[in-house]
Amino acid sequence: MAAPSDVPAGRPAARTTKIAIVGAGAVGSTLAFAALTRGSARTIALHDVNSAKVEAEVLDLRHGLMFTSQAHVIGSDDVAVCADADVVVVTAGAKQKPGQTRLDLAEGTIGLMRQILPGLVEVAPDATYLMVTNPVDVVTYAALQISGLPRERLFGSGTVLDSSRLRAVLAERCGVAVANVHAYIAGEHGDSEIALWSSASIGGVPLLDWEPLAGYPPIDAEVRAQVHREVVDSAYRIIAGKGATNYAVGLAATRIIEAVLKDEGRVMPVSSLLDGYHGIGDVCLSVPSLVDRRGVTSSVPVPMSDDELAGLRASADSVRGVLRRFRF
């Protein structure tokens, strides 16, 4: 299927925002739907090697345009559909199977990045690139080496989703709205990730000083360990039940995209190449970072306990171990 023009016939060309989503599977198509309903960009482009799938997804999305903000939805199996995108989101990759860790996915996905990234950079050389494919930290590091893009303009969705899961669980346990909970998951987007309890807060109160509301248990060390385990295991539970995670990750990625397109300067735990963060470097990990139109501009050195810092370093070692298997 040939790539259609972004500009309808008879209309003058105008500078508008464009998101290109690579991969029209469960995550990519859900991300497109989330971006469309939130009005994230004027043009949403889907790219997938399966022409019938991408054509069907685009048609389905277009049929809902009456109920969304004005947008232009296009799609193709030709990479040219991604041309001149402001943000390119890569969701294509091997599908995670029940019982399979994210790191088990690395080999096939890195091979795919070698195939698709050069063509993407050729048609969208000035875009910001967001990697959503798992294992996202390993894939992000590999993608930086393969693409040659600067670290600011290529980064991963990291633990933005995990942090949302953490906040949702804490809100339920504490009897407050999710919006009142501020807490981050850092490190690998996977089994070695850590919760940053030292900087967590509820309604401005440090989590470690939180006095439980009537009818709710204290958030002591035992409960915090349970919450952390629930967050780490949640993806496995979802995959076991329905085969893939798609809704929350689609929303999380869309929120990252908006931080870029709207130049928000929002602090988010995305996965980027660290350089001396608490002494950690030469690895892509998630830490609270500033995200704006330029991409990831800086990492925020939030306070950490000795245990948290040790956990972050162990997580870095875990990701580096996988990268060494693939000679990065």
Automatic annotation (TrEMBL):
Its main location: cytoplasm. Its EC number is 1.1.1.27. It is found in: Cytoplasm. NAD(+) binds at residues 23-28, 48, 53, 93-94, 132-134, 157. GO terms for biological process: glycolytic process; lactate metabolic process. The active site is at residue 189. Beta-D-fructose 1,6-bisphosphate binds at residues 167, 182. Keywords: Allosteric enzyme, Cytoplasm, NAD, Oxidoreductase, Phosphoprotein. GO terms for cellular component: cytoplasm. InterPro entries: L-lactate/malate_DH, L-lactate_DH, L-lactate_DH_AS, Lactate/malate_DH_C, Lactate/malate_DH_N, Lactate_DH/Glyco_Ohase_4_C, NAD(P)-bd_dom_sf. The modification Phosphotyrosine is found at residue 236. PROSITE patterns: L_LDH. Substrate binds at residues 96, 102, 134-137, 162-165, 245. Residues 159-318 form the Lactate/malate dehydrogenase C-terminal domain. Transmembrane segments: none annotated. It catalyses: (S)-lactate + NAD(+) = pyruvate + NADH + H(+). Pathway: Fermentation; pyruvate fermentation to lactate; (S)-lactate from pyruvate: step 1/1. It comes from the Bacteria. GO terms for molecular function: L-lactate dehydrogenase (NAD+) activity. Allosterically activated by fructose 1,6-bisphosphate (FBP). Catalyzes the conversion of lactate to pyruvate. Belongs to the LDH/MDH superfamily. LDH family. Homotetramer. This is L-lactate dehydrogenase. It comes from Promicromonospora thailandica. The lineage of its organism: Bacteria, Bacillati, Actinomycetota, Actinomycetes, Micrococcales.
